[in-house]
Amino acid sequence: MRPPYPPPPERSAELRRRFAEEARSERPDLSTLCLLLGAEADGALDEAGMDAVQIALDELAGRLPFRPGGPRSWAVALRELLGERCGFRGSAADYQRLESSLLHQVLVRRRGLPILLSVVWIEVARRAGAPVCGVALPGHFVVGFGADEQQVLADPFEGGRVLSAADAEVLVAGATGAPLHPSMLGPAEPLEVIVRILNNIRAWAAIRPERSDVSLWAVELSLLLPSHPARLRYERAQLLVQRGDYVGGAAELDAYAEVVAAVDEPAAEKLRRQASAARAMLN
To answer: Which residue intervals define the domain Protein SirB1 N-terminal in the entry (predicted)?
Structure first.
């Protein structure tokens, strides 16, 4: 299977415009953002394909029982439909595939990273009227049904297994060595989910220098979000230089130096020297 590659520049520009617009809207839509991200990753995903994903999510929601009951009943209903009947789950091998971070591919393969499988759970459950949210536990993303003391957690990566309090404690302790704190159980907003997805993609590409194209578009989408670390501009500059765009990389380094100069002039001067070195590569 051919790995996904980005679309032509004109298509990419339009996707990015829509991505930025959606991210800055009053209520960003998680599935729309995931699909725009997916279309930026995979030039084969066109408008009809994006519509087909939304229809598939609607159809899955239609297969759920009508308001099955409280949070645990919802969690069990989603597990039975998505995990058992449809076979959505994850495995260690899924961490090695870019497709595991793309919603349209996860729907086809029924495999993915915890956060993308959770997006499927969230979007199907939300369409069916469930009280659902994403829960960004340290090191592992899960889904929550209900709220506060009534909240029930499920792990889509394990086919929707309903988690006990002890299970959640073990997940957090395994990732951080620290106990589970109630603040970790709050709902993850759509933009938080997108940031985490993009971070996963950047981590995937970072160990694959031949896919610096993926690193670059993931950084550039991150920069379109309303809030992002300023250091992403430095990362973008490095990637541009790495990919042979010495003029663009140098300009980005100079621009970032202006931001840094307000708080750390020696660091800004170092960035300016890097910009000069990048321009020198043109000779």
So the answer is: 54-199
